[in-house]
Amino acid sequence: MAIRLIVGLGNPGPEYEQTRHNAGFWLVDNLANSLPGCRLQRESRFNALAGKCHIGGKEVWLLEPQTYMNRSGQSVGGLARFFKIAPDEILVVHDELDLPPGSVKMKKGGSAAGHNGLKDISAALGTQDYWRLRIGIGHPRTLNLQQGVADFVLHRPRREEQDLIEECIEKALRIIPLMVDGKTTEATQQLHSA
């Protein structure tokens, strides 16, 4: 199935803009800025920033829920139902504690692994069977930090981590056209071998 909806997860508001939890927003912002005529604007009916864009001649929705992370499903489910977008046509981009900064992975389905945004989206869609683009932010324990997880994800990455996360976003942006074209296997292989 070709991807018709790309969702970036994060928390709204300037105080969260540069935090690790907003890695999904960072990718969608970069994607929107790279596409001619693509602009995200407030869509109150979905409680989100959304934009209809074209990638490789195909129409794709970009979405950034403005509900806070743990209520992301409200926006995703609302837009998907309204435009009749199936779960396997949805790509959710999010921060991933289990991957180190500099690592980015793609998968379809699976558990939320404690990620509240994914839990809420799965509940809203009634399935876990959607695509996830997982941007590694590291875990405070593996990075030898004493912060709790909630505190860690709501803080800015260190400079060297930020550089690695930005490299991952650039890698991921290169395979988005393949996902939109329905070439999910090729996209996944290219991302994982990059």
UniProtKB/TrEMBL annotation:
Catalytic activity reported: an N-acyl-L-alpha-aminoacyl-tRNA + H2O = an N-acyl-L-amino acid + a tRNA + H(+)
Binding-site residues, tRNA: 16, 68, 70, 116
GO biological process per UniProt: protein quality control for misfolded or incompletely synthesized proteins; rescue of stalled ribosome
UniProt protein name: Peptidyl-tRNA hydrolase
Similarity field: Belongs to the PTH family.
Pfam families, sorted: Pept_tRNA_hydro
Annotated localization: Cytoplasm
Top-level EC class: hydrolase
HAMAP family: Pept_tRNA_hydro_bact
Site, Discriminates between blocked and unblocked aminoacyl-tRNA: residue positions: 11
GO terms for cellular component: cytoplasm
Complex formation: Monomer.
Primary role: Hydrolyzes ribosome-free peptidyl-tRNAs (with 1 or more amino acids incorporated), which drop off the ribosome during protein synthesis, or as a result of ribosome stalling. Catalyzes the release of premature peptidyl moieties from peptidyl-tRNA molecules trapped in stalled 50S ribosomal subunits, and thus maintains levels of free tRNAs and 50S ribosomes.
InterPro entries: Pept_tRNA_hydro, Pept_tRNA_hydro_CS, Pept_tRNA_hydro_sf
EC number: 3.1.1.29
Single GO MF annotation: peptidyl-tRNA hydrolase activity
Main location: cytoplasm
Residues marked Stabilizes the basic form of H active site to accept a proton (site): 95
Database matches in Gene3D superfamilies: Peptidyl-tRNA hydrolase
